[in-house]
Amino acid sequence: MAPLRDCKAWQDTGLALSTTSNEACKLFDAVLTQYATWSDNESLGGIEGCLSKLKEADPNFTMGHVIANGLELIGTGSSVRLNKKLEGAMRTMLMLSKSQPLTEREKLHVLALEVFARG
């Protein structure tokens, strides 16, 4: 596995993330890589472990909420209408997205997930 990207590495690729936490950026990369490669890398703690650590590293990192909620929506067959915990997580994500400066790309991710969640 390639080294996990910190804040600067994400910025250098033109995909800046709105967090100052290098740990959050690396964990976001770990989750994204495992999802994209359809793997659960136990040495990283697997997707669930990385998501948990990601939320701890920066609880206000909007894209951390986007990836966690997106994986829940796409992977479990759950919906915000049936799952109150997911509905609350989506509300939190939307609140965070409106309370901080995000890149246009991040705003579009939030919007896409909001539309997807509504069906």
Order of helices and strands: HHHHHH
Would you identify the regions where 5 or more consecutive residues have pLDDT less than 50? none
Class based on secondary structure composition and strand pairing: mainly alpha
Proportion of beta-strand residues: under 5%
For the residues shown, what is the average pLDDT? 96
Number of domains: 1
Which range best describes the helical content: under 10%, 10-25%, 25-40%, 40-55%, 55-70% or over 70%?
A: 55-70%
* CA distance, first residue to last residue: 35 Å
Question: What's the total helix number?
Answer: 6
**Largest sheet features:** none
Annotation, overall tally of beta strands? 0
Shape: globular
| Cα Rg | 14 Å
Write the layout of secondary structure elements.
Layout: H1 7-12, H2 22-36, H3 46-57, H4 62-76, H5 84-99, H6 104-118
Structure notes:
This protein has 119 residues and is mainly α. The protein has one domain. The chain has six helices and no strands. Helix 4 packs antiparallel against helix 5 (84-99) and helix 4 (62-76) runs parallel beside helix 6 (104-118). It is globular and about 40 Å long.
